[in-house]
């Protein structure tokens, strides 16, 4: 479990799926941060970015420490109470959205419930928790970038503003009535924003 290994995994998927073609990387939450880092390390392989309810990591050490503490609490709960406890908790809104009655939310909940608690805990502690910040490097990303955030995703509104301001070719879209998981809560609005962006790309 390491961030560099996950980044390498992404490169290997692209080696298989698009070996000679720059791609549009679309990432949600951690996936968006991973996409930013991939674009910084391999700019020749990225044609555009779609960054959904994500952020460039932390520059403030206190904010980073707070994030690590939150990750540790979740990891400990997973190991002691099991993965279903996460699915049943308020924190599940960050993974399946705030409307658990939706078919897509129920599908996501079932998929999460099948995961290894230890594996998810290790991923949090060793990958998504200590992910390096890249705020100061955003200006180096020269490709078009769509920054999408739910209007009610309070934890990521500021991060969306930062990315929109620092990425040279950023377009920001705020999805009304959506929290963190816009793909489940407001899929039509998200799809429309992505399609419009891709037309211009």
How would you describe what is shown here?
By secondary structure, the chain is α/β, with parallel strands linked by helices. The chain has helices spanning 3-17, 30-41, 61-81, 83-87, 93-96, 103-113, 117-128, 154-166, 182-185, 187-200, and strands at residues 23-28, 46-52, 145-150, 170-175. A four-stranded parallel beta sheet has the order 1-2-3-4, sandwiched between helices. Strand 3, helix 8 (154-166) and strand 4 (170-175) form a beta-alpha-beta unit. Helix 3 (61-81) runs antiparallel to helix 7 (117-128).
Termini Cα gap: 34 Å
In sequence order, what are the helices and strands, one letter per element? Answer: HEHEHHHHHEHEHH
- As a whole number of angstroms, the C-alpha radius of gyration is 17 Å
Helix content: 55-70%
Structural class per helix/strand content?
alpha/beta
So how many helices?
Answer: 10
SSE blueprint:
Layout: H1 3-17, E1 23-28, H2 30-41, E2 46-52, H3 61-81, H4 83-87, H5 93-96, H6 103-113, H7 117-128, E3 145-150, H8 154-166, E4 170-175, H9 182-185, H10 187-200
Parallel strand pairs: 1-2, 2-3, 3-4
Helix pairs in contact: 3-7
């Amino acid at each position: 479990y390491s961030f560099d290994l996950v980044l390498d995994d992404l490169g290997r998927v692209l080696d298989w799926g698009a070996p000679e073609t720059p791609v549009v990387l679309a990432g949600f939450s951690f996936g968006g941060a991973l996409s930013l880092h991939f674009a910084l390390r391999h700019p020749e392989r990225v044609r555009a970015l779609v960054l959904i309810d994500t952020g460039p990591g932390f520059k403030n050490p206190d904010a980073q420490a707070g994030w690590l503490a939150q990750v540790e609490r979740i990891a400990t709960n997973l190991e002691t109470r099991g993965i279903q406890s996460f699915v049943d908790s308020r924190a599940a809104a960050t993974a399946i959205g705030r409307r658990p009655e939706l078919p897509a939310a129920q599908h996501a909940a079932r998929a999460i419930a099948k995961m290894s608690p230890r594996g998810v805990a290790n991923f949090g502690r060793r990958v998504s928790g200590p992910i390096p910040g890249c705020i100061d490097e955003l200006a180096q990303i020269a490709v078009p970038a769509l920054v999408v955030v739910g209007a009610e995703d309070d934890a990521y509104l500021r991060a969306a503003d930062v990315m929109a301001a620092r990425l040279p070719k950023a377009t920001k879209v705020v999805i009304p009535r959506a929290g963190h998981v816009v793909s489940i809560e407001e899929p039509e609005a998200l799809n429309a924003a992505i399609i419009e962006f891709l037309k211009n790309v």
